[in-house]
Amino acid sequence: MSKRQEQLVNVLLREPDWITAGSLADLLGVTPRSVRSYIAQINARADDEPHAIESGPSGYRADRAALAALRSDSARTSTRDRLHGLVHQLLESRNGIDLRRTAQSLYVSVATVEADLVRVRELLSGTGVTVQRTGSRALLSGDELAQRRLVSKLAHEEMERGSFDGEGLRRAAGLGSLEAESFGPFKRALAAQLAEQGYYVNEFASTDVVLHVAIAADRVSHGHPLEGTHLQPSAQQERLAGVIGTLASQHFGVSLGQGDLHHLASLVLTRVVASDGSAGTQVPLDAEVEKAVIRAVGHAAEEYLVDIAHADFIRRLSLHVQNLVHRAREQAWSRNPLTKSLKATYPMIFQVAVSIASDIAEQLEVTIREDEIAYIAMHVGGRLERSRRAEAALTATIVCPGYYELHDLLRSRLDESLGPGIEVTAVETRVDPDWSAMTTDLVLTTIEPPVPDERTVQLAPFVTEADIERIAAVASKRRRARRLARLRGELERYLSPEAFLRPLRAKDEEDAIRQLSAPLIARGIIDEDYVSGTIERERLSSTAFTESLAVPHALTMTARRTALSIGIAESSIRWGEGRIQVVALAAFSESERDAFQTVFEQLVEVLSERDSLQRILRRGTDFGRFLDELAAVIDG
């Protein structure tokens, strides 16, 4: 498959519903005609499954099994697969490879291999490995640890395509000496052994550790062990080294030396586990790291008005950051398969994590990559979820005229079934209650109200499971309506005709940021320093929180007042590694910090819904119509 076809397949496999050719074209930066051509070519490749991509009145949809199988088959002959194969040949050859013979073995021209070698040099960036040329021969140069880092990078690229299975990782990492079926049992056995020793295992990072152990086993089996160091390992490292050595022998059939075992034990301690303090596993906390985390968390809590400055949260995050610092200094990064979905689904949480990571990186003088920021976001999200549960509670009035204690039985049943999300604040037992005086979010009644509305749920005196499901459905709609009502009011305050650009014609992120900043600068809301801060924030981590929307902003809230500048491109524009169509530049002021959560998170929520976004783009041709359509979407 071509690069565009691979991108199209990835989008369709992620998309659960039908998607139009126009939407696909916007995401890929091509025309709808090109999309239809790609789909025809992909379906033509699927001889046994001619409809790997289904078409219908609503657009296109993937037959997931057929399309995933087709992608797997195509991967074996793709350009990336050829590049990876070339790198593995270089890794396996002590004396290098002859480019002419390599071209013959791959059934391509020497010019193609020469071009591939240029791409290989780009792939080697950051690994510590280089390519040396002597005539027609090419040779890899770099120590054993650097070469393993390169193998890990190849495997992680495969993981980004969704290949978490043992066979996909074995093929991507070139682990020809190992059985794919060994990966899963090794991972489960390692997790069980670590749990017995008092460690909590991070599932995502444990996959990374298994990969590194497998790489070590394969390299050792080919005569490339790691030499030991003169440093005395800790008692924890010695225990973990024993566990890893036993399991590697059992599952991979390889005996690892002390150099490999101590290196892998250190890797486990910095990637996979957080000690619970039992069995002598308490990890000492570095005072400098803890101080940096306290400052960063305090700053984020104050800047974004989030409830995260708690001792237990700071302790857990400090342990994570301590391991992160070790990984950063060794350039042994952890990958996070949830990075994109975290950014798209929880932009507010991710922004808080970016702020924390930025502060920590500056204080401890380390580089923190986006996947590592995503792990910090997972910590932040866990802490905020506790506070949000209380904030999301709805009030309810029970109307239940009846016999003896019927209303008490009803209330007890509702409390038991609905939990803390709905709080009963009033009970009416008259047959003629004052309906107009009921101001709660929900009215749960066993008698028919004179004028039913969206908050009323009529129940049987003895509540059934179907009644509980209807209450939960109405409660969900009320919560969303409450959130979006706040958003509508905020939007009217922060949007203006002058700061609405359609069409937005921008060549890249910086160009779009400067165009959208201009009307805010003209009105004295922000200055050039804020623009520079917004561009710097964008370089730290892309603000393209969905496949259609970017929300650039500065880390500091130095705007004179909070405002939004909206830009809509008629066709998608390049933004980071993807393409987007709507840009909402946000200027936040210190005095209006509470607006951050309302506008930032809920605006993204509305514009992330594909159908709603397409409606707004189709009908919101000027500022007035844009606001009307946005309000209509908010009202449901």
Count of extended strands: 15
Q: Indicate the proportion of strand residues.
A: 5-15%
Strand neighbour order, sheet with most strands: 9-8-10-11
State the end-to-end CA separation. Answer: 41 Å
Largest sheet: 4 strands, parallel
Which regions contain 5 or more consecutive residues with pLDDT less than 50?
276-281
Average predicted confidence as pLDDT: 81
Number of helices: 25
Percent of residues in helices comes to: 55-70%
- From the alpha carbons, calculate the radius of gyration and give it in angstroms: 29 Å
Structural class: alpha/beta
What is the general shape?
globular
Summarize this structure as a short list of keywords or feature phrases.
636 residues; alpha/beta; four-stranded parallel sheet; four-stranded mixed sheet; 25 helices; 57% helix; 13% strand; globular
Q: What does this molecule look like?
A:
38% of the residues are buried. This protein is of the alpha/beta class and 636 residues long. It has helices spanning 3-14, 21-28, 32-45, 64-75, 79-92, 99-106, 110-123, 144-160, 166-173, 183-196, 203-221, 235-252, 258-271, 287-304, 311-330, 339-345, 347-364, 370-391, 406-418, 465-494, 509-522, 528-540, 594-608, 610-619, 623-634; strands at 53-56, 59-62, 97-98, 130-134, 137-141, 199-201, 273-275, 394-399, 422-428, 442-445, 456-458, 500-501, 549-550, 558-575, 578-589. The chain has 25 helices and 15 strands. It has a 4-stranded parallel sheet, with helices on one face. The protein has a 4-stranded mixed sheet with strand order 12-14-15-13. It has a 3-stranded antiparallel sheet with strand order 3-5-4. Helix 19 links the parallel strand 8 and strand 9. The chain is globular. Helix 11 (203-221) runs antiparallel to helix 13 and helix 15 (311-330) packs antiparallel against helix 18. Residues 493-633 form the PTS EIIA type-2 domain. This is Lichenan operon transcriptional antiterminator. Residues 284-390 form the PRD domain. Keywords: Repeat. InterPro entries: BglG_antiterminators, HTH_11, PRD, PRD_sf, PTrfase/Anion_transptr, PTS_EIIA_type-2_dom, WH-like_DNA-bd_sf.
